[in-house]
Every structure is written in C-alpha cells, then in structure tokens.
Design brief:
Alpha-Beta Plaits; alpha+beta; 4-stranded antiparallel sheet; Arc Repressor Mutant, subunit A; 19% strand; 158 residues; 2 domains
Length: 158
C-alpha cells in the first residue's frame, strides 16, 4: 500500500489542484465545519477523499482554524481603511501597544519595506472616528507622518 505524502515535507507550491480547489471553496465559506458534504459536492469529489485532504491540511497547519464571516457593515462599521505610519524606532513599541487597544484597529503590521513603519487595517463607524484615531496617533511622540486610505467596493477577497 502506497503511503500518502504528508504536507509537512512539501511546500505550498507542491499542493495539488485538488488541495487548491478545496482551499478556494473553503475561503468562500463552502464546506466549513459540518458542511463537508457540501464541499465535496461543490468540487465534485467523494466526501471521503475531501475529508482526508481537509484533515491533512489541518494537520500540517495549512488550515489553522475556522471562524465566522462577520459583516462589519451590519455591526455599524461601514468604513474600512488603512493607515500607514512613519515613526522613529524608539516610538514603535509604545505606538503598537496603544494601537492594539483601539477598537477601530483590526490589524497592526510592522512594514519591512517601503515608506511606512506600520500599516493598520481599520474599521470605522463614521468619519469622526477616523479623525479621533488620527489625532491620537499624531499625539504620540516620535510619529513623523501618516497617510489614510479609505476603501470603496471590494471586487475580490480571499
């Protein structure tokens, strides 16, 4: 009997077309949780095959968890945007600590290339919330500059 190769010894580029079809369908919310039969039907493969592949993807950490798809507009956050911040190295740690506590800040990334030191993904209830966060950031000693991008309609999301 031939042993099934484990993903731990393979790179992402080595995932086959079936693995990628499973992952793409799951990103669209198909087959997550108890809906494995739905996933198998969607990609046209037997449920047992899909179940095995999903288990292997989970074991190898390619699938690291499942969570709800949240409609932030329905929760009162219709404005989504990004903020790029330029700051001195000595201000970075304190600024990150401050931003992690902010309700409107969804993600805080250190930037390794480009003109910014931090990139934030934010959700806002209104324009007043944007201005309040902007003012709070600019008050931090060592912040030199920032830029804000507000997003329009999304045409593709993974």
């Amino acid at each position: 009997m031939e042993e099934i190769p484990r993903f731990g010894s393979r790179r992402m580029a080595d995932l086959d077309e079936l693995d990628l079809r499973i992952l793409r369908a799951m990103q669209r919310g198909v087959g997550v949780g108890p809906k494995l039969t739905e996933l198998a039907r969607e990609i046209g493969e037997p449920r047992s095959t899909v179940n095995l592949r999903v288990e292997l993807l989970e074991e190898e950490g390619v699938i690291s968890g499942y969570g709800p798809a949240i409609d932030w507009v329905k929760l009162g956050y219709p404005i989504i945007g990004y903020i790029g911040i330029v700051c001195l190295d000595e201000a970075l740690e304190g600024l990150i600590r401050l931003l992690k506590k902010e309700e409107s800040v969804a993600q805080v990334h250190e930037v390794t290339t480009g003109s910014f030191d931090l990139l934030l993904k934010c959700r806002f209830r209104d324009y007043q919330g944007i201005n309040q966060l902007r003012e709070k950031i600019l008050r931090v000693e060592g912040v030199k500059d920032m830029d804000i991008w507000l997003l329009g309609p999304c045409h593709k999301e993974e």
